[in-house]
Design brief:
The protein is of the alpha/beta class and 526 residues long. The chain folds into 2 domains: 305 residues, Glycoside hydrolase 38, N terminal domain (7-stranded beta/alpha barrel, Alpha-Beta Barrel); 111 residues, Families 57/38 glycoside transferase, middle domain (immunoglobulin/albumin-binding domain-like), CATH 1.20.1430.10. Helix content is 50%, strand content 9%. It is built from 19 helices and 10 strands. Strands 1, 2, 3, 4, 5, 6, 7, 8, 9 and 10 form a 10-stranded mixed beta sheet that branches. Helix 1 links the parallel strand 1 and strand 2. Helix 1 packs across helix 4 and helix 16 runs antiparallel to helix 18. The relative contact order is 0.15.
């Protein structure tokens, strides 16, 4: 008999980065790298599990901005070009390392894997990975949930309730268009929650969301079972709390599995290690060195010397760590079951990009963990939130507290000295968007196009990724530029709409640049 449930949750999200005005744009690599190193490997793991008859359960966020990039023909074409360049580089590496026995097998491994990724993307799935994910949801092994339309940070948008409403409703409508039904659950961007957001979720038909542990532990009234059973808000939306113990085993820089010395070293890449003239044909037009994804060393330890990577040794370690994680969840579930008198649910959420991109062996760890969970034990059952709620409909009514994940757990990452300047502009733009929607509801023609584009520009400006990048200090110039560009575009559209002098040529250009959500409906702001 099982003693508890385990809900593995992968949050897959990237900011909307698409620049048709340039033939070659550095930040689009964020998407290309995640495709090659995370999304395709995860789909390949799911394929293998299904082919072997493993009845698994997994929950995965696919954010609307990420889905929009996956479905965009321009980015699909550019990703294929990116893969072809990687294959050419790997082929060159196979030749270069022929007298380097410690690196030759690795060069061959990358050459094979890049070929495999291209075949999977272009031939097996016709460049459409959205449908690949959809197929697993329809089989019942994967539950896909949505997110804020552009990953806007809801607690800092709450001054404009219509902005939160538009983020959620746009996301749900976009999800329904792609997957044929409304989403049952949502990943609140950055796990950001404040009371009142649950009402917006209820109006959109959302049944559940995830909250940071302290958001549930500090709920009112205090939850009887802590984070090991969901609570339900007075509006009727369930909140699942993150389990800190299972998260720490994977995330912790000191104690987490990805830091093991046998795993591949992320920060040693041939894009920086090899002679510039050799690597230059595979760089961007600006000539700056970049990560190529070809890495020949393992973590080794806190030393500048990095030993050659051994993939077989790393795979064995991934299997060992998967077994350790399973063992710990068994003991955890048994302990909690005895004290709770009911089956606990252990919610283990992670950023999907950890698996494959940052932690190269991550997809194999998931593969081994799922196989072990299904075949090697009976104490803990894999589940999804929807499945759990169907089996356990009686929940304690309680309101989570305002909370987020990230440093200190209360929004500080997204509101501090480096990024606080953006909010007065975002709030004013949201106020103006509601004003326009109230004034021009039901309008058609070019004015409706302009209003829809103004809504797109506001949504893109609200992305929490820009504030996060400003805080972390990486690619700050790009994050600032994106925030200002979208706000300035919104401001221009606001003035043109208000003064009834819309420049159709300029509007068409904006529609081609910022083309997210083709079915955008500005009246969500009314």
């Amino acid at each position: 008999m099982s003693k508890g449930y385990l809900a593995l949750v992968l949050h897959a999200h990237l900011p909307y980065v698409r620049h048709p005005e340039y033939d070659d744009f550095l930040e689009e690599d964020w998407f290309f790298e995640a495709m090659t190193e995370t999304y395709i490997p995860l789909l390949q793991v799911f394929d293998g599990l299904v082919q072997d008859g493993v009845e698994f359960r997994l929950t995965m966020t696919l954010s609307p901005s990420l889905l929009s990039m996956m479905a965009d023909p321009l980015l699909q074409e550019r990703y294929l070009r990116h893969l072809n360049k990687l294959i050419d580089l790997a082929e060159k590496e196979v030749a270069r390392t022929r007298w380097l026995p410690e690196f030759q097998p690795l060069a061959q491994m990358y050459f094979y894997r890049f070929h495999q990724a291209r075949d999977f993307f272009e031939n097996r799935h016709g460049r459409d990975l959205v449908q690949a994910f959809k197929a697993f949801q329809e089989r019942g092994v994967l539950e896909i949930i949505t997110c804020g339309a552009t990953h806007g940070f809801f607690p800092l948008m709450a001054l404009s309730a219509k902005s939160v409403h538009a983020q959620v409703q746009t996301a749900c409508e976009h999800y329904e268009k792609l997957f044929g039904r409304r989403p049952r659950g949502i990943w609140l961007p950055e796990c950001g929650f404040t009371p009142g957001i649950d009402e917006v979720l209820r109006e959109a038909g959302i049944r559940f969301f995830f909250a940071e542990a302290h958001g549930v532990l500090h709920a009112s009234p205090r939850p009887k079972y802590g984070v090991f059973a969901p609570i339900i808000t007075p509006s009727g939306v369930a909140a699942f709390g993150r389990d800190l113990e299972s998260s720490k085993q994977v995330w912790s820089a000191e104690e987490g599995y990805p830091g093991d010395y046998d795993y591949r070293e992320f920060y040693r890449d041939i894009g920086f290690d090899l002679e510039y003239d050799y690597i230059r044909p595979f760089l961007h037009s600006d000539g700056h060195r970049i990560n190529t994804g070809i890495k020949y060393h393992r973590i080794t330890g806190p030393t500048p010397y990095k030993a050659p990577y051994d993939p077989h040794r790393a795979q064995e370690k991934a299997a060992t760590h998967a077994g350790n994680f399973m063992f710990n969840r068994e003991r955890q579930a048994e302990f909690l079951f005895d004290r709770m008198g009911r089956k606990p649910i252990i919610v283990a959420p992670y950023d999907a990009e950890l698996f494959g991109h940052w932690w190269y062996e991550g997809p194999e760890w998931i593969n081994m963990l799922i196989r072990k969970m299904v075949h090697d034990q009976q104490a803990v059952r894999l589940t999804t939130p929807s499945e759990y709620l169907s089996e356990n409909p009686r929940l304690q009514v309680s309101m989570p507290s305002m909370s987020s994940w990230g440093y200190k757990g209360y929004c500080e990452v997204w509101l501090e000295g480096s990024n606080d300047w953006i909010y007065r502009h975002l709030h004013k733009a949201a106020e103006r968007m509601s004003e326009l929607a109230g004034r021009y509801g039901g309008t058609n023609g070019i004015r409706r196009r302009a209003l829809n584009q103004a809504a797109r520009e506001l949504l893109l400006a609200q992305s929490s990724d820009w504030a996060f990048i400003m805080k972390t200090g990486t690619m700050v110039e790009y994050a600032v530029k994106r925030t200002k560009d979208h706000l300035l575009r919104f401001d221009r559209l606001y003035r043109e709409i208000s003064e009834d002098r819309i420049d159709e040529g300029a509007l068409t250009h904006l529609e081609s640049l910022d083309n997210i959500f083709p079915d955008m409906n500005f009246e969500l702001y009314r």
